[in-house]
Design brief:
This protein is mostly helical and 184 residues long. It has 5 helices and no strands.
Protein backbone atom coordinates (compact mmCIF):
# COMPACT_ATOMS: atom_id res chain seq x y z
CA UNK A 1 0.00 0.00 0.00
CA UNK A 2 3.05 2.23 0.05
CA UNK A 3 2.70 5.05 -2.44
CA UNK A 4 -1.06 4.58 -2.96
CA UNK A 5 -3.13 7.70 -3.32
CA UNK A 6 -6.29 8.24 -1.32
CA UNK A 7 -8.28 9.01 -4.50
CA UNK A 8 -11.01 6.76 -5.83
CA UNK A 9 -11.87 6.20 -9.48
CA UNK A 10 -15.43 6.68 -10.68
CA UNK A 11 -17.02 4.31 -13.17
CA UNK A 12 -18.10 6.91 -15.73
CA UNK A 13 -15.25 8.66 -17.54
CA UNK A 14 -14.89 12.41 -17.37
CA UNK A 15 -14.40 12.68 -21.16
CA UNK A 16 -14.43 10.40 -24.19
CA UNK A 17 -12.89 10.91 -27.62
CA UNK A 18 -13.65 9.05 -30.79
CA UNK A 19 -12.20 9.33 -34.26
CA UNK A 20 -14.14 8.81 -37.44
CA UNK A 21 -12.89 7.33 -40.70
CA UNK A 22 -12.06 10.78 -42.07
CA UNK A 23 -9.29 11.14 -39.48
CA UNK A 24 -7.52 8.03 -40.78
CA UNK A 25 -8.09 9.05 -44.39
CA UNK A 26 -6.59 12.49 -43.72
CA UNK A 27 -3.54 10.92 -42.06
CA UNK A 28 -3.08 8.50 -44.96
CA UNK A 29 -3.39 11.33 -47.48
CA UNK A 30 -0.85 13.44 -45.62
CA UNK A 31 1.50 10.45 -45.35
CA UNK A 32 1.19 9.78 -49.07
CA UNK A 33 1.84 13.46 -49.80
CA UNK A 34 4.96 13.37 -47.60
CA UNK A 35 6.18 10.29 -49.49
CA UNK A 36 5.70 11.97 -52.88
CA UNK A 37 7.39 15.20 -51.75
CA UNK A 38 10.28 13.22 -50.26
CA UNK A 39 10.65 11.19 -53.45
CA UNK A 40 10.72 14.34 -55.58
CA UNK A 41 13.27 16.00 -53.29
CA UNK A 42 15.53 12.93 -53.28
CA UNK A 43 15.21 12.51 -57.06
CA UNK A 44 16.06 16.16 -57.60
CA UNK A 45 19.10 15.95 -55.35
CA UNK A 46 20.37 12.77 -57.01
CA UNK A 47 19.95 14.23 -60.51
CA UNK A 48 21.71 17.48 -59.58
CA UNK A 49 24.57 15.97 -57.56
CA UNK A 50 25.27 12.82 -59.58
CA UNK A 51 23.94 14.05 -62.96
CA UNK A 52 23.64 11.07 -65.36
CA UNK A 53 24.29 8.53 -62.62
CA UNK A 54 21.62 10.28 -60.56
CA UNK A 55 19.10 9.73 -63.35
CA UNK A 56 20.02 6.03 -63.33
CA UNK A 57 19.51 5.99 -59.55
CA UNK A 58 16.09 7.63 -59.91
CA UNK A 59 15.07 5.04 -62.51
CA UNK A 60 16.14 2.29 -60.11
CA UNK A 61 14.34 4.02 -57.23
CA UNK A 62 11.08 4.28 -59.15
CA UNK A 63 11.39 0.62 -60.19
CA UNK A 64 12.01 -0.29 -56.55
CA UNK A 65 8.82 1.46 -55.44
CA UNK A 66 6.82 -0.07 -58.30
CA UNK A 67 8.06 -3.55 -57.31
CA UNK A 68 7.19 -2.98 -53.63
CA UNK A 69 3.72 -1.68 -54.49
CA UNK A 70 3.22 -4.56 -56.93
CA UNK A 71 4.11 -7.22 -54.38
CA UNK A 72 2.05 -5.53 -51.68
CA UNK A 73 -0.89 -5.43 -54.09
CA UNK A 74 -0.31 -9.06 -55.02
CA UNK A 75 -0.51 -10.19 -51.39
CA UNK A 76 -3.55 -7.97 -50.78
CA UNK A 77 -1.94 -5.64 -48.27
CA UNK A 78 -3.80 -2.52 -47.18
CA UNK A 79 -1.60 0.55 -46.98
CA UNK A 80 -1.68 2.20 -43.60
CA UNK A 81 0.58 4.87 -42.17
CA UNK A 82 3.19 2.29 -41.06
CA UNK A 83 3.22 0.86 -44.60
CA UNK A 84 3.72 4.31 -46.06
CA UNK A 85 6.51 4.90 -43.54
CA UNK A 86 8.11 1.65 -44.74
CA UNK A 87 8.05 2.93 -48.32
CA UNK A 88 9.54 6.28 -47.28
CA UNK A 89 12.36 4.48 -45.46
CA UNK A 90 12.82 2.26 -48.52
CA UNK A 91 13.55 5.39 -50.55
CA UNK A 92 16.33 6.31 -48.12
CA UNK A 93 17.79 2.82 -48.16
CA UNK A 94 17.73 2.64 -51.95
CA UNK A 95 19.43 6.02 -52.28
CA UNK A 96 22.05 5.00 -49.72
CA UNK A 97 22.95 1.93 -51.77
CA UNK A 98 23.30 4.00 -54.92
CA UNK A 99 25.41 6.63 -53.16
CA UNK A 100 27.79 3.91 -51.97
CA UNK A 101 28.17 2.65 -55.53
CA UNK A 102 28.54 6.09 -57.11
CA UNK A 103 31.11 7.32 -54.60
CA UNK A 104 33.11 4.14 -55.08
CA UNK A 105 32.82 4.63 -58.84
CA UNK A 106 34.29 8.14 -58.51
CA UNK A 107 37.24 6.74 -56.55
CA UNK A 108 37.82 3.93 -59.02
CA UNK A 109 37.62 6.25 -62.05
CA UNK A 110 40.62 8.16 -60.69
CA UNK A 111 42.65 4.92 -60.55
CA UNK A 112 41.72 3.30 -63.86
CA UNK A 113 41.63 4.57 -67.43
CA UNK A 114 38.59 2.64 -68.60
CA UNK A 115 35.10 3.16 -67.22
CA UNK A 116 34.35 -0.55 -67.58
CA UNK A 117 37.08 -1.60 -65.15
CA UNK A 118 36.23 1.21 -62.74
CA UNK A 119 32.55 0.28 -62.80
CA UNK A 120 33.23 -3.40 -62.18
CA UNK A 121 35.50 -2.63 -59.24
CA UNK A 122 33.06 -0.07 -57.82
CA UNK A 123 30.22 -2.58 -57.74
CA UNK A 124 32.46 -5.29 -56.32
CA UNK A 125 33.80 -3.06 -53.54
CA UNK A 126 30.46 -1.43 -52.67
CA UNK A 127 28.45 -4.65 -52.65
CA UNK A 128 29.81 -5.89 -49.30
CA UNK A 129 28.76 -2.68 -47.52
CA UNK A 130 25.36 -2.80 -49.23
CA UNK A 131 24.83 -6.44 -48.26
CA UNK A 132 25.88 -5.81 -44.65
CA UNK A 133 23.56 -2.82 -44.24
CA UNK A 134 20.60 -4.49 -45.90
CA UNK A 135 20.98 -7.85 -44.14
CA UNK A 136 21.01 -6.14 -40.74
CA UNK A 137 17.91 -4.17 -41.75
CA UNK A 138 16.20 -7.40 -42.87
CA UNK A 139 17.05 -9.03 -39.53
CA UNK A 140 15.55 -6.03 -37.73
CA UNK A 141 12.42 -6.34 -39.87
CA UNK A 142 12.20 -10.03 -39.01
CA UNK A 143 12.34 -9.26 -35.30
CA UNK A 144 9.81 -6.41 -35.65
CA UNK A 145 7.47 -8.70 -37.56
CA UNK A 146 7.86 -11.43 -34.97
CA UNK A 147 7.32 -9.43 -31.79
CA UNK A 148 5.51 -6.30 -33.02
CA UNK A 149 1.88 -5.34 -33.12
CA UNK A 150 -0.08 -5.57 -36.37
CA UNK A 151 0.86 -2.03 -37.37
CA UNK A 152 4.53 -2.71 -36.70
CA UNK A 153 4.29 -5.92 -38.73
CA UNK A 154 2.89 -3.93 -41.67
CA UNK A 155 5.87 -1.61 -41.45
CA UNK A 156 8.28 -4.55 -41.20
CA UNK A 157 6.77 -6.37 -44.21
CA UNK A 158 6.79 -3.26 -46.39
CA UNK A 159 10.35 -2.39 -45.41
CA UNK A 160 11.50 -6.00 -45.96
CA UNK A 161 10.23 -5.98 -49.53
CA UNK A 162 11.75 -2.54 -50.02
CA UNK A 163 15.16 -3.68 -48.79
CA UNK A 164 15.17 -6.77 -50.99
CA UNK A 165 14.14 -4.82 -54.08
CA UNK A 166 16.61 -2.08 -53.16
CA UNK A 167 19.49 -4.55 -53.30
CA UNK A 168 18.20 -5.87 -56.62
CA UNK A 169 17.76 -2.46 -58.22
CA UNK A 170 21.03 -1.04 -56.87
CA UNK A 171 23.27 -4.01 -57.65
CA UNK A 172 21.63 -5.45 -60.77
CA UNK A 173 19.41 -2.89 -62.48
CA UNK A 174 21.74 0.12 -62.22
CA UNK A 175 24.71 -1.97 -63.34
CA UNK A 176 22.70 -3.25 -66.28
CA UNK A 177 21.73 0.32 -67.26
CA UNK A 178 25.34 1.50 -66.95
CA UNK A 179 26.51 -1.44 -69.07
CA UNK A 180 24.02 -0.48 -71.78
CA UNK A 181 25.24 3.12 -71.63
CA UNK A 182 28.89 2.04 -71.90
CA UNK A 183 28.17 -0.22 -74.89
CA UNK A 184 26.41 2.57 -76.81
Amino acid sequence: RAGSLPAKLIETPVAESSFGPTFGEANRTMGFRAAVIGLIAVAGFMCIYYMGAGVVAVIALVLNIVLVLGVMSLIGAVFTLPGIAGIILTVGIAVDSNVLIFERLREEQEKYDTIGIAMGRAYTLASSAIFDANITTLLTCLILGWVGTEEVRGFAVTLSFGVMFSMFTALVVTRWIFQIMINL
